[in-house]
Write a structure and sequence with these properties.
heterodimer, A: alpha/beta, 10-stranded mixed sheet, 3-stranded mixed sheet, 5 helices, globular, B: alpha/beta, 12 strands, disordered C terminus
Chain lengths: 219, 240
């Protein structure tokens, strides 16, 4: 079963973002979303290391090593950009000022619990700003592969990995589907081109509710 | 009358070893920077040369501390992001952690920043919702506000802060460059002695409207050449 590439997941996520929104993109697939935000739609990207309003990467000859995103990747600045320190950055994040955070995940539960900072394999995890983002952003979109490399579901009845936060995830966008976390359970809203709802259910532990408007992703 | 000489404030020092004065074994030291950007690489090297050990290091990540870790100078790290997949190896860190000779206290990044801000601002402790319901609430007092469980976190202070800024004046006022700002201003507040390495010193004083860190928080300033080769992305790409 072949679903979307990482880039196409990012394309589908980009379509969720609205002009004027303040958005943080986490590590992994979420970072790719920045490549698919056209300049005609003013989306203000916030990076927790102290910048709002960064744009795509510059050519190597124009790299400024002091101007990077939270992944240490050089970026350019867009009109309306500003810099600030770490306390102010997390005031924005924890204080509920971000419209959207797009995060990767190891696991998401049917109640929207998020596990994305530590696996049982290592003695320590890497938490970074994940917990602050999970708490503070008004909307959390998880962008990830639907199943782990070994084929195991990542969308589970309950997370088994250490939690980042409880009941924070609103939307899950994967290589196979778009799923909304609702009070009644996980609502399957879209399937990737060529993928059936049955195929999505096969690699999802909780029972999915098919939306009455279930359709193929438009990319 | 006539005996009192005008004594000008001058926090600048000429050498890195002067900047390192009084940093003794066992010191708690904050290190500025986010990854490589805004990290005080020259001060870190001077600290390495000084030989100070049993350091309690407070930083966002482990990456700029690798030379100190390799030389076993650090006994504890308080950070938010210990693991990296780029640049120089993390093996010395993992080896010392597994052996129990390097203690790790992991703190969510926003909590780390706010603990430093509180420490510098005279706030002994504060409640945050971040980390409630996770491993991070273990052993901490909890209280609910607005129906949300919150955990009590303590203000964090250090003996020294080693920070990087772009420009300073002799009063210790500082401005930064782009995303090299990050933790530096917060750490400047939270340490008993703040040492800043800068690209330039402005003779007539910085414009008061543009000062980001007021000099009241800064004790020593040293002008150094800007280090470029440390940046992780440059190492990955094989730049120069």
């Amino acid at each position: 079963m072949i679903g979307l590439t990482r880039e196409l997941i990012a394309v589908r996520v980009a379509a969720e973002l609205r002009e004027g929104q303040y958005v943080n993109l986490g590590t992994g697939i979420p970072t790719l979303v920045a490549n698919f935000l056209g300049p005609e739609k003013d989306i203000m990207l916030q990076s927790e290391n102290g910048v709002i309003g960064f744009g795509p990467a510059p050519e190597q000859k124009d790299w400024d090593i002091d101007l990077v995103n939270a992944r240490a990747q050089p970026v350019t600045l867009r009109p309306g950009a500003c810099f600030f320190d770490q306390a102010e950055s997390f005031a924005m994040i924890r204080g509920g000022h971000l419209d959207v955070a797009v995060l990767g995940a190891y696991q998401v539960s049917k109640k929207g619990d998020l596990a994305n900072w530590k696996t049982p394999r290592f003695g320590f995890g890497t938490v970074g700003g994940a917990m602050d983002l999970a708490w503070g952003a008004k909307r959390i979109i998880v962008a990830m592969e639907h199943a782990a490399p070994n084929g195991q579901p990542k969308i589970l009845n309950d997370c088994t990995y250490p939690l980042t936060a409880r009941a924070v995830v609103d939307t899950i966008i994967t290589d196979l589907a778009v799923i909304e976390v609702t009070r009644d359970g996980l609502l399957l809203k879209e399937v990737a081109p060529g993928i059936t709802p049955e195929q999505v259910q096969e690699v999802t532990e909780p029972i999915l509710i098919s939306s009455p408007d279930l359709r193929e992703m438009a990319l | 009358m006539g005996e009192a000489e005008a004594r000008l404030v001058n926090k600048t020092v000429s050498t890195l070893s002067e900047a390192m004065a009084e940093i003794e074994d066992g010191a708690a030291i904050m290190f500025g920077g986010f990854g490589g950007a805004g990290a005080p690489h020259n001060l870190n090297d001077a600290l390495l040369e000084r030989g100070t050990k049993n350091i309690v290091a407070i930083a966002n990540s482990v990456y700029p501390l690798i030379p100190l870790i390799e030389q076993r100078r650090i006994r504890k790290i308080i950070c938010s992001f210990p693991v990296h997949s780029f640049g120089r190896g993390m093996e010395p860190f993992k080896e010392q952690f597994d052996a129990g000779s390097l203690e790790l206290e992991l703190v969510p990044q926003g909590t780390l920043a706010e603990r430093m801000r509180a420490g510098g601002a005279g706030i002994p402790a504060f409640y945050t919702p971040v980390g409630a319901g996770t491993e991070f609430e273990a052993g901490k007092q909890k209280m609910a506000f607005d129906g949300h469980e919150c955990i009590l976190e303590l203000g964090l202070k250090a003996d020294f802060a080693l920070i990087k800024a772009h420009a300073a004046d002799r009063f210790g006022n500082l401005v930064y460059h782009a995303t090299a700002r990050n933790f530096n201003p917060v750490m400047a507040m939270a340490a008993r002695v703040t040492v800043a390495e800068v690209d330039e010193i402005v003779e007539d004083g910085l414009d008061p409207e543009h000062v980001v860190t007021p000099g009241i928080f800064v004790h020593r300033v040293v002008r150094v050449p800007k280090r470029v080769e440390w940046h992780p992305i440059l190492k990955v790409e094989g730049f120069q």
